[in-house]
């Protein structure tokens, strides 16, 4: 990776990300070197991206095995019914700049780095709560495919997903 790209990532701020979640680290998140295990970062990617897809793009991750989603009684639902696409992870990458560990509270930020006709490359920034310096910047790519064939459909991703993703497309400071 080019040095200028690493420097750009290393200078990321919370305001570069339009969607945020707070995560409390857990004791068993630490590895034998007393910092957050690499697999935990992948779980953070999965959690924030899928939360955004559910909240802002009408996705229902449980529809694969339960095609008729049910919302919790008394709770609002943003789940869209009627399409047969799922998002598959095809690539992940992390650049680490500093360590975090239990009992840190993390502020995780999300934005869309690239939007294709059937794919989205997310960028995730991890910050220790109360600190300005980014600790890790990662990329995570989903390709939206037809559930039955596991292939990209003719029209690319569905309209509701694209519209939700466009809100985060390199848009620092977007509020939700």
From TrEMBL:
Tell me which domain of life the UniProt entry assigns to the organism this sequence originates from. Eukaryota
* Molecular function in Gene Ontology: fatty acyl-CoA hydrolase activity
Q: Which InterPro entries match?
A: 4-hydroxybenzoyl-CoA_TE, HotDog_dom_sf, Thioestr_dom
CDD domains hit by this protein: 4HBT
- Entry keyword set: Hydrolase
Q: Which residues form the Thioesterase domain?
A: 34-132
* Family as reported in the entry's similarity comment: Belongs to the 4-hydroxybenzoyl-CoA thioesterase family.
Q: PANTHER family per the record?
A: 4-HYDROXYBENZOYL-COA THIOESTERASE FAMILY MEMBER, NOVEL THIOESTERASE SUPERFAMILY DOMAIN AND SAPOSIN A-TYPE DOMAIN CONTAINING PROTEIN (0610012H03RIK)
- This chain belongs to the protein called Thioesterase domain-containing protein
Q: Which organism is it from?
A: Penicillium cataractarum
């Amino acid at each position: 990776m080019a040095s200028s790209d690493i420097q750009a990532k290393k200078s990321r701020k919370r305001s570069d990300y339009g969607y945020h979640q707070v995560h409390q680290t857990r004791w068993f998140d630490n590895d034998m070197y007393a910092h957050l295990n690499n697999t935990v970062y992948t779980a953070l990617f999965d959690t924030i991206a899928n939360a955004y897809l559910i909240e802002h793009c009408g996705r229902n991750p449980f529809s694969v095995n339960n095609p008729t989603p049910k919302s919790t009684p008394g709770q609002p639902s943003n789940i869209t019914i009627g399409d047969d696409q799922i998002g598959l992870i095809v690539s992940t990458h992390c650049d680490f700049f500093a360590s975090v560990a239990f009992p840190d509270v993390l502020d995780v930020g999300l934005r869309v780095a690239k939007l294709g006709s059937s794919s989205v490359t997310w960028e995730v920034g991890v910050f220790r709560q109360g600190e300005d310096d980014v600790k890790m910047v990662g990329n995570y790519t989903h390709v939206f495919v037809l559930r039955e064939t596991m292939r990209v459909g003719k029209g690319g991703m569905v309209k509701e997903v694209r519209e939700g993703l466009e809100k985060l497309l390199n848009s620092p400071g977007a509020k939700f």
